[in-house]
Structure prediction request, 236 residues.
Amino acid sequence: MRQIFLDTETTGLNPESGDRIVEIGCIEMVNRRLTGETRHVYLNPERKGNEEAIKVHGLTDAFLADKPKFAAVADDILGFLAGADVVIHNAAFDVGFLNAELKRLGRQPFHTVAAKVTDTLLMAREIFPGKANSLDALCKRLEVDNTHRTLHGALLDAGLLAEVYIRLTRGQDSLVIQAGDDQRPDRTLAVPQLDLSGFNLPVLAPDADELAAHDAVLADLDKASGGKTVWRALAA
Prediction:
């Protein structure tokens, strides 16, 4: 399975009002192993950047002035993405900007290039309902080291996203090990299934304080989800 982890940085938040892409970063993974193949470009957006956006990514108008325009790199980027499962955090944002750039060139929209788009923000909301699910929050929760992320950067964030994705999707029946170059890309370490039926495990009943604390956590989750938690619906 070929996946591309993609991130963009932009002049602002709204492509419909003329905001443009200023950076694209892509990292390739095949069979859940990084291949080392990447694409990374800074782009001249042909307009001034928003001050708030520049504070986020640090890419000034002066720095971007001599960078290529999107039209000059479109074929290379699209060729790299063609036929892949493109994994993006908050995909609607990045795809919206990519579609706006493609439309300016009279090209087909992004979904005709990628075989699939996977949104890790939607995945995280399913796995961690009611929690903060920004890339920084997921890095902290899943123990991905992002201490070097002082500014947003498309290639840096694509790399962090790849690590977050592996942790979000890692099954309990196998562990992906990267111990050396001599291993096959698809090699996994199988975890044997053990028969636990012979074990007599003690059951510890919660006390009143523990039950109250548990109910409080459930109430907070129910409030954060707008009353959509499954256990409340089943109880009703």
